[in-house]
Structures are given as structure tokens and as C-alpha cells.
Design goal:
This protein is of the alpha+beta class. 23% of the residues lie in helices and 57% in strands. The chain contains 1 helix and 2 strands, in the order H-E-E. Strands 1-2 form a two-stranded antiparallel sheet. A hairpin with a 2-residue loop joins strand 1 and strand 2.
């Protein structure tokens, strides 16, 4: 597991740990990369790489989200 993945999971764990009595807390994290290579006649014309990371939190209290 990479350091970035470990850091995202630690954030989710901290968020969930802050749930108060009577609350349900859901946290998710995601991380992804995308690489694209265009080639013509055996030569690379372009190389693109992009990355993203994010998180989401849902809190349910008294039956309400």
C-alpha cells in the first residue's frame, strides 16, 4: 500500500472516529490515475498522465442524512 493510500485511509478513519452518539458516519476515499499514449508509425506523439484523489462523508442522525 502506498503512502498516499495510507494517508487517505487514515483521514477516513479519523472522520469516522469523530461520530457522536446516535450518529452513523460513512467515509470513503478514492485515488486514481489515467495514462494515455498516442503513437503513429512506431513513434510516440503524445503522452498524458493525470491523477485524482477525493473523499466523501455521509452522516445519518435521527434517521436523516
Amino acid at each position: 500500500m502506498s503512502d498516499e493510500t495510507s494517508e487517505l485511509l487514515a483521514i477516513a478513519d479519523r472522520v469516522v472516529a469523530q461520530a457522536r452518539s446516535g450518529e452513523q458516519v460513512e467515509a470513503y476515499v478514492s485515488r486514481g490515475t489515467n495514462t494515455s499514449v498516442d503513437a503513429y508509425q512506431g513513434e510516440i506523439e503524445s503522452l498524458t498522465q493525470a491523477g485524482s484523489a477525493g473523499s466523501g462523508i455521509r452522516v445519518i442522525r435521527d434517521g436523516r442524512t
